[in-house]
Amino acid sequence: MAEVNSPASNLGNNYIGRFAPSPTGPLHFGSLLAALASYLDARSSNGTWLLRMEDLDPPREPAGTDQIILDQLQALELSWDGEVLYQSSRLPAYEECLQQLTDSGLCFRCDCSRPRIKSLGSVYDGHCRDRDLGETRNSAIRLRVDNSQIEFCDQIQGAYSQRLIEDVGDFILRRKDGLFAYQLAVVVDDAFQNINRIVRGYDLLDSTPRQIYLQRILGFPTPSYAHIPVVTNEQGQKLSKQHFAEPIDTRNGSEQVLLALKFLGQQPPDSLRGSKLKTILEWAREHWDIQAVPKLANMPLCS
Ligand code: GLU
Ligand code: ZN
Q1: Helix 29-43 × helix 277-287 angle, to 10°
Q2: CA within 13 Å, CB half, 27
Q3: In the predicted model, what is the mean pLDDT of residues 6-10?
Q4: Is residue 211 within 8 Å of 139, Cβ to Cβ?
């Protein structure tokens, strides 16, 4: 069943978008792309652009990184609306949704090891569904999925679908170490912040059906999605702190933004070279064309 989401132009002034960095390191070129694309998409539609700090994994988040990211965004003149939402302040909300899913009989404990799941090709086989591990320590909480086909229309990449049972399996909502999983937190907060348009990296494309599945059971609306290309290094790995991506040098913000615009398929005129950031961003807001953002895979057109 095709579910076609409305393009940004239909959202008008009610557009609410967001950028949701994890403070595991300063912004690098890859995260600048996500920030800039979500910013331009929102601002070119006179939309709201919110900022959410996805700080749910303290061991991976060096102290002060959130502030570095905020300073970088400010230096790049990407100004957000309202207060920054910190996921670390939202634990009771995640707990409540998890309880709701548990009360509906949709959750179970799982103590399977990582190597076992890896040996299954990372598609969970439902091994612990009926084992009834109780409140065992050192177990994760997973959500039972069904075999329905979840399809959505990515506004850049085209139609994408998964059957969760075959492609992912029952997935984790709360990890063994007690931390809430990204999939749960992101869905709860996108709904809480009334986000209706999500522009983010292509590496999250295959998380989207899980998020839509959760939205449906929790009774939340599904935003429209657009996934932009992620930058890889020479080894084909996504740029990330682990792979030594250089932090953005905001002293030459104009150059970085021009480069990012080109990477996003926009065509800033040469005359903008050497211009002030403000001028470049004005041009970019006026000329933002999401259809020009490169498509990565040969995904079918949306029906
Ligand atoms: N926090 C996630 C990341 O930095 C992004 C989450 C999202 O945009 O849905 O990769
Ligand atoms: Zn298990």
Answers
A1: 60
A2: 30
A3: 51
A4: no
Token pair 């069904």 in the structure block, residue:
146
Judge whether 297 lies within some domain. no
Q: For 235-293, how does the pLDDT look when each residue is reduced to its tens digit (9 = 90+)?
A: 666 666 555 578 998 999 999 999 999 999 999 999 999 999 999 999 999 999 999 99
At 129-161, the pLDDT tens digits run 999 887 777 899 999 999 999 999 999 999 999
Output the domain CATH number for residue 125.
3.40.50.620
Per DSSP, what are the bridge partners of residue 110? 140
| Residue 186, ligand 1, Cβ within 6 A | yes
Q: Which atom of ligand 1 is nearest to the CA of 207?
A: 9
Q: Which residue has the tokens 């965004």?
A: 73
Q: What is the residue range of 239's domain?
A: 9-292
> Is the residue at 206 inside a domain?
yes
Q: What is the DSSP letter of 281?
A: H
Token pair 């899980």 is found at: 210
Q: Are 39 and 3 in contact (CB under 8 A)?
A: no
Q: Residue 299 falls within a domain, yes or no?
A: no
Q: Residue 2 falls within a domain, yes or no?
A: no
167 C-alpha vs ligand 1 centroid, how far in Å?
21
Extract the tokens encoding 153: 């229309």
Domain count, the chain: 1
* pTM greater than 0.85: yes
> Residues 6 or more apart from 17 whose CB is under 8 A from it?
38, 41, 42, 47, 48, 49, 50, 195, 196, 197, 198, 199
Whether residue 80 contacts residue 50, with contact meaning beta carbons closer than 8 Å, is answered with: yes
Nearest CA to ligand 1 atom 7: 20
